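Chain X:
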Amino acid sequence: MAYDYLRADREQLFLMPVCMREWLEEGHLALFCIDVVARLDTRALDQRHPNDGPGRPAYDPEMMLALLLYAYCNGVRSSRRIEQACRTDAAYKVICGGLIPDHATIARFIAEQQQALEGLFVEGLRLCHAAGLVDLSVLALDGSKIAADASLAKNRQAEWIRAQIKELMAQTMASEQAEAPAGDPLPGLEPVGEISTPGGRLARLKAALAVIEGEEQEAEQRAKTKAQAAFAEAQEGRKLPGRKPKDPAAGLARAEADYAAALARAEANHARRRATGAEAGSEDSATPDRAQDPAVKQAQAALKAAKDRAQEEPAKPLRANITDPDSRVMSTRKGWVQGYNGQAIVNRHQIVLACKVSQDVTDIELYQPMIEELRRTLTQAGIPPEPIELMLADAGYCSEANLTADGPKRLIATQKDHKQRAAARELGNTTGPPPEDASPIEAMEHQLRTTEGAAAYAQRSQLIEPTFGDRKHNHGYRAFHRRGLKAAQSEWAFIHLAGNLLKVYRHQRAPSATPA
């Protein structure tokens, strides 16, 4: 029995010329990327390719940009996968006009144009603003740990790095002497090969050593400043607030300050009793024995314990990653990761308005820099930053400095969200303004327990969490492909540029909410 099927005729010939755009349906994402690139200011991409330069002509930067935008919108960052798609995928063929850029060409374009690609983030914000998606009423700030192209196992101490540098330098000198011509060597001859290239092993080792030395100096200066401040407080008898430091050296400095404060308080208490006549006529009224004071004894015992611990547990030597010296060891919910802290500010439409990559392992020092970054990007995009009504951030950004800094009105959680909700259930809601004598943190806790404050803060997770979920889960952007802080910043900005433009594309294709 013969079946009547619609069969594919793969041997048919086209009698009329074919337009490549007709391969794709109207409104296809690839055509949108081509149109978007035509509206962006791409003059920065042309600066590396003068018209009268020698050698083979370069690929059109706008074509390469459209290719990358479409690939990133589909979660494809591998240059080899992009090259393969240019051979087999109709959408990639339309973007490239049938050209097939080599994977090395694509990778070099990303590396050489990293500054220009990062600057296009602001250009994308202009298109989002024109589409009506830049709403500044409520914004949310958060960070997410992104892995670097480096392994946790490649963190080394300074002594190991110095030994490796010495060995590599010796190998380089021996190679130069063996390969040198019979006559005098050329002046200015430098070592060649992978060892001495800017991204080579020797350069990475030197960068890692510089990181350790810089952190040691910063830690020493920070400890000195804290010790001076602590002793200044101790001279007035004030006990230092906060938890005891876990580091043995810092714990010893804290114990010394606490002991000095205990002595000062004992002296002040004796002077006060002597002034009131409580100890008039006693033998120790003139020369008090401060060592017998219970608080002084307790502080002295704590000081002895801190000294013993500092001798038994010397400070752990600092380490740096020899693969990507700019990356840091970061803590995540799933364990430790060698990477960076990717920050972003989003609005109601989940448009990323500002983004930055940081080496800080915590968020507390990044609130004010991100507010400044937001103002900078909005100003460059021609968007007035004044209408920002409310900024939302989680407990990682909570500090008195961040709560009282200049800027838009803000709600910053004082503790983790589940603890915040538990405290509201246990203590109940509040009303009205906070008490006049409340500290900044107490005032914020009061605001968050009001009905209006709790409802406003509840928007935070709805704004920022889906954005990171889309980048990391839907598109697979869990690790940076290139090494170094500048390269990671460029990649982070381009990731969010693609995400913002994808939002514009879906917004334009969404059916109208008003009936016809």
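Chain Y:
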Amino acid sequence: MNELSQPRRTSHLTLKVGLFAFMYAMLAGLAIQLIILPYVFPQLHAGNGLLVGRDWVGFHEQAVAQMQKMALGGWSEFRLRPDGDNAITGVASFFYFLFGPHPWTLLPLNATVFAIGGMALFRMLKFLELENNDAIIATLPYLVFPSALLQYGQIHKDVFCTTAVLVMLWSWVGLLRQERKLWQIGPLLASGALAQIVISIFRPYLLFPFLGLSVLLLLWYLGRTLWRAFQFHLAGNVPGFFRVIKFDLGSIVILTLLSAFLYLMSLSFVDIKMSPLPFASVHPKIAVPTIIWQSNESVRSADAVRIVSSKKFSDDEIYAELLSQNPLKTPAMIASLRLEVERIKAARMEAEMVKAIQECRPVVILREGAFFENLINRVFLKIAVARAGFTSSGGVTAASNIDKGIDFCRNEDLVRYIPRAIQIALFAPFPTSWTAVEKRNSSPIEIYISAVEMFYCYIAYFGLLYWLMSYRRWSVALVVPIAFAVGLTLLLGLTVANVGTLYRMRFPFVMIFVSIGMAGILQLAKIKPRWVQSLDSKID
């Protein structure tokens, strides 16, 4: 009976955490937009409750322009991505059309989404078998960090991406736990699928790391099952084998479904169309949303203009070109032409690579039949192109830039930069900049706040290290969130050259490190030195 009541108590506590997070986010968001920025720090106020010098100012202006079109043409003018990229602009215009062009109208939605993310993080910490009080304390940084205000208190897609990432990781951990129940699989799959849809709307490129993680986990469970089958085969205990691998087989099925859905989602993107009701003339602001799945084949990928197509180096095309120049087709001539094809192909490839290196632009040559080599090259190329996009945008002289002059011209450049990328991704802004005023876009207040947060993060990193070294068993509750957070943090360190942007985008992954690290510190604090233990035994 106690075992049955424990999940209920945890669920009730999770709801309380979510309700508290919602109320806190609502009140803090209203305070920052209506009081703190306009009256306490007017020098940081860009108007309408928005912080000066950030993307949300432009998102607000685009949403107002979209709202004005909708005011004239109705819901038919609604576009989820008015600029073709940022869905948050369409979301803001939706609320502006209903309630007026005020950023505070988005606060209920932002607070709700933020609270769901807090609940997912809390449940992941509970999967680590923490006591309720320890799990609540470890979740607090997600709520009270001043940088969290940028998640729900401004107009940006970060809060949706943060929550979607945390919900997906929570659902995956729940699905792969040894203690999972059959009735939990459906709700967890549905939660993960909904989070995937949210990610596909706001940051679709995050689906690919999740796809990579799901494939790696699937290979792990397949390998473990085969190894156990081999061991039981040697022992001659076939019935016992099926009893033992029942959980692994279920995990393989679940991971196959997750991987398949992620792959299908990567082939399409989600759009939303608003359809007015028949009595729209009476209630013009009432409409029904319709989800539209569209293929992304027509959408230019990040490396579409960079990849050198294999057709440029096709044997058949080069051979046809040589035949047109040499009308004689004797056997000796054909044999020599075949050799010439290989020489010309190699020369063209080398010339293209030399030109790319000289121009320092990302490029890759796709080779026929080299699937894994092409796959790796595509991944490296996408990272290089993404970094080039960040390094070529924004203020070149901004003091918050780090290594902005570094681009990845070759795959080796990227590999050599990995240690530096990890350093930047985890520890920037560095202590040397904690008291320095940025040249643009940052105030002393923002810098000092980030310094306090980073100091806390450094302490939490120590707790994380202790937790990883002392945790009695490395279960999926620890491995899955940490592995994904490490991978995505490294990816951000490789691509983002501006600390301000990095600081905002890495929020969900740093919260995983900080929360688990705080849990480690709490466990460390419970350890009694030997002299205290001996003193207690003498008193007893």
